[in-house]
Amino acid sequence: MKISNYVKRSFFATVIVVLVLSHFSFLPIAALEGVPESEEFKGIYQTDFGDSGSLTPENWGFTTSGATLSINEEEIDGNNTPKMDFSVVDQSGGRLATKTFDTPVMGSKLMVEFDWYPGNHNDKGTHANENGGEFRILDGAGNTVFTLNHTKNEVIKYFPGNKEAAETGFQDPNAWYNIKVAFDLIKNEAVLTLENKATGESETHHTSLSDVSFDGTITAIRLAGIRTSGNNHTWTTYLDNIGIYHVPIAENVITTIPSLPYHRVYVGDATENLETIGLPKTVPVGLASNETVEVTVEEWHTVDKDWDPNQAGVYEFEGTLAENSQIENLFERTATIYVYNRLTPPETNRDTEWLDRGVIALKADDGIFVSWRLLADEYDKDVTFNLYRNGNKLNSKPLSVTNYTDSEGEAGAVYTVETLVNGKKTESKEVIAASENYLSLPLQKPADGTTATGDYTYSANDASVGDLDGDGEYEIIILWRPSNAMTALEDVITGPTIFDAYELDGTLMWRMNMGMNLTSGPQYHQFVVADMNADGKSEFLIKTADATTVYGATDGKYDPDKVISVIGNPEDNGRWINEGGHVVDGPEYVSVFNGDTGEVIDTIDFAFPVEKEKGDHGISWGDNFYNRADRFLSGVAYVNGKTPSAIYGRGYYARTGFVSYSLNDGKLVEDWVFDTDDAGRGEGLGNHNLATGDVDNDGFDEIIAGSLTLDHDGTILYAMDGEMGREQGSHGDALHVGAFDPAREGLQIFGVHEATSVASLQYRDGATGETIKSFYAYKDAGRGVAANIASNPGYEYWGTGGGTVETGGGVYNVQGDIITDSFRDIGLPVNFVTYWDGDLYHELLDGTTISKYDEKTNEVTVLESFEGVVSNNGTKANPSLQADILGDWREEAIYPTEDSSELRIFSTTIPTEYRLPTLMHDTVYRMGIAWQNTTYNQPPHISYYLGEDMREDVINGDLEFPKVDYTINVNAIKHELQLASTDKKLSVLFNKLDQAQHHHDKGKAKQAVKQLDDFIKHLAKSNLDSDLQAELHNDVLKLKDLWNE
């Protein structure tokens, strides 16, 4: 038996294992009258569900969600006494019925006895696997210690822990079986006895408990419906005559050792001497008397691999308990602790978009509100600003913040933001004040159409941004979704999805028609906008097919006669879909396009076609009707630590695949391909979304795909598999990744799960997967949020768990405090989070409103309600995009109007005293914008902690940000020069750059390059720092290469 040292339920662990064991006296067996006993076992809990008297509590304390529990007194195959009836009717997820005992049952031997009528399941139909039902026995750490499993047509099977199932000789589901499962903790084995009560036929099976996570107690029993690929589950089963027994042990016997949290050290901080690691000298142990005491650890030693203080990773240590005359270690319990030897945060210098000042001037309640962008490398410099209205200076002294309210301002006024470096003017940027509190971007709605299954119209949907033309301003790419778009479960011949690229003034740059060989719907057409080759212009990457076509524009208007690019064979348009609109055959591509022109750069075969083997109808993904096969994800990650790569995935309910694409010398390259079929693990752990970030401090980004985290090289960093302090995960609908805890360096992860048998809400360490906190509601939790909304240090999180604070219905701080008992009672949204009102807390965006939590009153109030616009994706109710694309560090919310004639870009008009750089220069946030719209939209987070608890650090400018390496263009080079020196002697360098840009814009390549060569000569003669000279020299050489292409 492997002693599990990880406690699975946050509150269950805290309350039951610690408090209950500390405050309850030992349960005297004699007090439990009416519980039958054998010569060997003593009875603890028993029920006949009402044969011998009234049943208290209802259903003997079994609880369920999404299914039905009742007491059935009808005759069922000879049993005409009361029995428990558990019914699952046409359910799309696994359903549970759980009985948790008041006090864990412990002893040298334990036994669970019950009568079970397995009952029939609905037929699997055309699906690959049958639905099933299970009876499970759980320990105090939440481990499933023993399982009995049956399906419609298979024999009853059993397995301890997560071991491979073994068969019994019984198959008939419509029969009563008396079942005994006895655990011998001395022999470390389980004995299963089954008897058909009608025939008297019986059999016994012995199985080892070696390598089974088992804390030596029985705490709960559970019925579980098992839904397989595709078909909903219908099942009725019955239980009767349950008894829980033990062979008593002395009160001073050690029964459990609660889990210990991971111990973190940093590479190089400790030595080979284990004493330098700081392992605990004592550990808590649970006794049979239900007390918890501290016991000395005699010795810690490594398990599986030797300790190496210079090698990062997780090391397992086992602790031998010292002998104690007052305590008996009958079961030879040992302690386990995991030591995470972590790399120190790296010094990075990643390719980053150069952006201009992004000035915005909007109508506000008290005049005109003006805000502008602070760049990442300006934060710790003497960079201030002057603001002018129609040429008149408004500020009496230079502004250090990047916003200003002009109480006398009016729409149409010209505002100029003047940048000062060390008190000297370096640049200025103008904007005309808008007449509304938003910017309007006119859209060109595509024409209606008709397919074999009916007419369709278009509406504007999700969007993303990139600097497509290299001018330092963002452009918007918007997805047009046809009205007959479908989910992967439906069968519709959908209209083609269309993408438009727009300047912020509404000028159309190009239009992409995806064609009829690609289905339209929320699970399809995941796209990537990123500067993949560091040329200063963003590319557009997407999965394509025969007949995907890009059209140009004439005078900013869509021109169907101007064909820019065609993918594959246009004559095969619509050839590769079936009558249900699903892609079933034919070529599947990935293409990358020039974001400025729409021209295709390169196209290669997609790494994961729908069929793994010809004619298998997508069965490798989990079903044969294209539901699980038609699940796609996309994102961006710096897998090489320097330049962004595109991440594309297929499948997450079962088989899961990801591929990383880089753009090298104009060619798409597969950096790596990950497939759970090849890895042999990780299937079924993916989400409807993903996130990316450097969780392990190696300087490269990992892919957080829900309960599965891939390393930057495409191998599994860890899976939430129930091992090493990682609670079992599952597929989920919501995912948040960011720096949530100021006391815990690095990134943390909060998510919710769909499987009812795992934690509904789970907060974990990003690098190791260690579960820090979890809540079990035994339901599909479809929503979850992490945001900093209260004064406690660290973020809060909440999600659609149970209805009580113990089952995940509250609002929780990452450091353990409970903020409020019920997020539902106060109407706290569970959707997007944003920075809007000027403090360092988050606001909550849901639909077309922004709300704020008031900690003092425990109430939620609406701050903004956007009129004339609509949110996207039904109940998901998200904007087309939420991102910091203009103005100061706070975020814009972008929505289409009701008729999709325009996009409205809403930006805050609330002043802020905080000076922070644009969020888009934080790579975790910038990557979050790239993956925000993949399938189930999720909000972005930042890689550093912000909160009102660190107000003074922000006010004093004490934050630290990584170095950035701006993608190459003349303005970026000038910016670096301006920050370095305002010496007038450097004017010749600026002149050479201006001349080079002028000639380049005129198409005079030789003259432009000559000016750059002259720049290099004058640079070498300057008094600039030698390191800066080297950087600028290298940047100009890169610019020459780009201009020579």
Feature tags:
1045 residues, mainly beta, Jelly Rolls, seven-stranded antiparallel beta sheet, 8 helices, 66 strands, globular
Characterize the structure shown.
This protein is mainly β and 1045 residues long. Among the domains are: 216 residues, Jelly Rolls (Sandwich), CATH 2.60.120; 89 residues; 77 residues, no CATH class. The chain is built from 8 helices and 66 strands. Strands 1, 3, 4, 6, 11, 12, 13 and 15 form an 8-stranded antiparallel beta sheet that branches. α6 runs antiparallel to α7. It is globular and about 100 Å long. The relative contact order is 0.09. Pfam families: Big_4, FIMAH, RGI_lyase, RGL11_C.
In short:
With 1045 residues, this protein is mainly beta. It has eight helices and 66 strands. Strand 41 and strand 42 (600-605) form a beta hairpin.
CATH class of the domain at 32-247: Mainly Beta
The fraction of residues assigned to DSSP E strands is 35-45%
User: For the report, how would you describe the main beta sheet?
Assistant: 8 strands, antiparallel
Mean pLDDT: 94
Distance between the termini: 65 Å
Instruction: Give the overall form.
Output: globular
The helix count comes to 8
The percentage helix is: under 10%
Number of strands: 66
> C-alpha Rg, in Å?
32 Å
CATH fold topology of the domain at 32-247: Jelly Rolls
Structural class by helix and strand composition = mainly beta
Low-confidence stretches: 1-34
CATH architecture term of the domain at 32-247: Sandwich
InterPro entries: Big_4, FIMAH_dom, Ig-like_fold, Integrin_alpha_N, RGI_lyase, RGL11, RGL11_C
Keywords: Lyase
Domain Rhamnogalacturonan I lyase beta-sheet: 351-430
Pfam families: Big_4, FIMAH, RGI_lyase, RGL11_C
